[in-house]
User: Fold these one by one.
Assistant:
Number 1:
Amino acid sequence: MEHKRRLEAMRQLAQLTDLPLIEADGYEMIEYMRAVVGHEAKRCPICYKMRLEQTARAAKEKGLDAFTTTLLISPYQDHDQIIEIASDIAKDVGIDFYYQDFRSGFREGHRITKDMGLYHQPYCGCIYSEWERYAKFKIGE
Ligand code: SF4
């Protein structure tokens, strides 16, 4: 349900900004769970890698110049680790990684998308982060 809500928000944003949107085939729940079970406290780099690889490959297939990620706007993500993982993927896939530190625009981005009436995520994305958000604790602490 959360994935559907976020996808719908992306579609609305694409329409409102007149930008094209390339959608993935779906949310690969089983692959994700298989990759992170047993490493729950260190799941984020695994997750970054899965998402960014898919993004880089889609960008390459479409003949685009580069790929990037909205993760770079979040003050809650491990920014340096994202850069490292994305740079490695860029080399493997053979496409540039566009880097910019978007974090200074985090609050403004929230305000703008709120004014647009777009859905805002209440937690990062996986079932573990949902649990952490509502149980108010951190796995591994
Ligand atoms: S907390 Fe976010 S980045 Fe980390 S594994 Fe979950 S969805 Fe991925």
Note: Residues 2-135 form one domain.
Number 2:
Amino acid sequence: MRPVIGVVPLDDTELKSLWMLNDYFDALYEAGAVPVMLSITDDEEDLASLAEKLDGLLITGGQDIDPALYGEEPHEKLGSLSRLRDKMETKLTDAFLKADKPVLGICRGMQFLNVYFGGTLYQDIPSQYETDIAHDMEKPYDRFVHAVTIKKGTRLADILHPGEIGVNSLHHQAIKDLAPGLTADAVSEDGLIEGIEHNDYSYVIGVQWHPEFMHLFNENSKLIFRSFTDAAKSKKSY
Ligand SMILES: [Mn+2]
């Protein structure tokens, strides 16, 4: 049996729609998992029963995270929010971690994990962080726009390899203070944290870039989804 991965959709509050990019699903299928799109709810009981049935959780990209969650006032360049999704991901992550089931955070998903564990964010990179790198690239997204260094001895170095790799970059927020318990596994050329792990769980990994846009041709992107799927498989009760 293939492990079943719950994937959080984009909660489009303006169009009252849930959006899912095929690339997340394609990358998970290719890695050997069966992805399912979750509804957006903060009902604790429903989320607990979902977590019981699912083998892994993929927290995808999306809106900005409510800065109130890390004790800050909204910056003038803060983007749109989905407070319901923030709440949902908090309760879902609680349930997944309690069972030590794997959680992968991509882009906003990585930022969410940092906030969840008590870290903070730059609410708007261009006005709050001095850099020459354009972290908010234009289409097409399946190309490298900057490098990150994967640090030796980290989980990401085990999954990929230590040293420099090319990544795409589609984010206007970033980790400011890293949460207790997290390790910075990958750092961009300008010093921003672009990959994390949590030391106390079997598999809690986050990447700031978007491997789902590059999984067709980029081995490093495939390896991230494969490691996640393998972790979900090993937690599966047959
Ligand atoms: Mn970047």
Note: The two ends are 8 Å apart (CA to CA).
